Amino acid sequence: MAECIPDRNWQIVQKALEDNRVPKDTFLAEVCEAYKDRTKDEELSELIQYIEEDYYRDVLVAFFLSGMPRNDIAKFLRMEDDLLSKFELLVVNPFEFRNKLDIFWYAEKYADACVDERGRQIVQAGIQLGPYGLMAQYTHGNEDIPIDTKQITKKMLQVAYTLSQVARGNPITSMQTKEAFKWMNGASKMAKESERIGADTTEEDEA
Question: What angle do CA 139, 83, 107 make, to 5 degrees?
Fold first, then answer.
């Protein structure tokens, strides 16, 4: 079975530098050159900094593993899409993931290998809570997270349903049943409010 190695290209670069040779791939060869002389390519120099700094690498990997589209990551983090495209190719190449199992497996493996505890938490939050969970942690100033009320309502209903299944067989007065009831009640109210409001409330022409 083929091994899932999302940072395979970065490993190729590191190995080439170690062996003092030039990779066959043109882009990887350019990265090697930029690694040796940071003045040759400003963008690649910045890219290498993001990869080598644990904080930047962990946060960016978390956003990619969360399933957030690259152009949305670029917009939210105020970064160049082209730079993130190169980061993705080197560190979290999407073509390495054959299925969702690979994504979750790698996220767990990556989190366990994080040097910094904060990095581990961010990666876990990305895979468990998705893009909204990360965006909530990285809003700046008066930024608002674009929220689709219908999508959020569906998420709440999913959680409520899951909790109700967990509560099956428990007494009506048990904590599990009470918690499930709270979520179902809240999700039901939100669903009605969402229907009253109408379409996606992130649209500019809606109040």
Answer: 65
145 with 195: CB under 8 angstroms? Answer: no
- Give the contacts of 137 (CB within 8 A, at least 6 positions apart): 122, 125
Domain limits, the chain: 8-137, 149-197
pLDDT of residue 200 exceeding 70: no
Measured CA to CA, the distance from residue 137 to residue 204 in angstroms comes to 24
Cβ neighbors of 96 (< 8 A, separation 6 or more) are 4, 5, 6, 8, 102
What's the pTM? 0.80
How is the chain split among helix, strand and coil, in percent rounded to 5? Answer: 70, 0, 30
Contact (CB, 8 A) for 105 and 112: no
Q: Reply yes or no on whether the pLDDT at 199 is more than 60.
A: no
pLDDT digits (tens, 9 = 90+) for 5-60: 999 999 999 999 999 999 999 999 999 999 999 888 999 999 999 999 999 999 99
Instruction: Say how far apart CA 195 and CA 152 lie, in whole Å.
Output: 13
Note whether 197 and 147 are within 8 A (CB): no
Distance linking the first and last C-alpha atoms of the chain:
53
Burial 2-20 (b: 16+ CB within 10 A, else e): eebebbbbbebbeebeeee
